[in-house]
Amino acid sequence: MTKTLSAALTDFVSRFSSTNLNGQLISQTDAQALNLKLGQILPNWFVEMLTKYPVAGAQIEYPFYEPDGDYDGCLSIGIAKPQDILNETLECYPGLAIKDLGYFCIGLDLTGSGDQFFTTNKKGDDPPVYMAYHDVSDIGQEIEEHGMEKIADSFSDFFTKAKPST
Q1: Cβ contacts of 151 within 8 Å, gap of 6 or more
Q2: What are phi and psi of 72, to 5 degrees?
Q3: Residue 71: alpha-carbon gap to chain centroid
Q4: pLDDT digits over 97-152, tens only?
Q5: What are the φ/ψ torsions at residue 33 (nearest 5 degrees)?
Q6: Contacts 24+ apart (CB under 8 A), 131-134
């Protein structure tokens, strides 16, 4: 894990410690079992994050859109737990279609739209975070080209900007 990502996660957990973060640590055994079920696609930094920082299951607000009236411009995201990662990566679209391109689910859209959040094991140890639209295609390359929107340039940026859900 990069120092930048480690610092962002440490700060995230610290900022949320006085809130109802509801994040949890995942045991090394459970993280390894998850990775095995996924075909070993999870990078070491992600497994380390799950096992060292209580973020799985945390509910956050992520500033992405321009605020408009009563809308604060935030996406409501639940940081994926192991079962969520498994389901959204192996059983549901778009995850099923983009898994072979290196993508895996890292977050759930709490509004219920089905547009989940993914990152990739192909862009280093602090990769971007994407919102993947569920209704674009069932072909991975088409989803990657036309059905994903980058919401954060890096995982560290994602956790730095995250706010507690209210």
Answers
A1: 62, 64, 75, 117, 129, 130, 131, 158
A2: -80, -5
A3: 23
A4: 999 999 999 999 998 888 999 999 999 999 999 999 988 999 999 999 999 999 99
A5: -65, -40
A6: 131/75, 132/94, 132/95, 132/98, 132/103, 133/94, 134/92, 134/93, 134/94
Under a CB-based contact definition with an 8 Å cutoff, are residues 165 and 76 in contact? yes
Place of tokens 């036309």: 146
Which DSSP category does 130 fall into? E
> Which residue reads 């060292």 in tokens?
52
User: How many distinct helices (H) and strands (E) make up the chain?
Assistant: 7, 7
Distance of CA 50 to the CA centre of its chain: 11
Range 3-164 classified under CATH 3.40.1410.10: no
| Residue spans per domain, the chain | 3-164
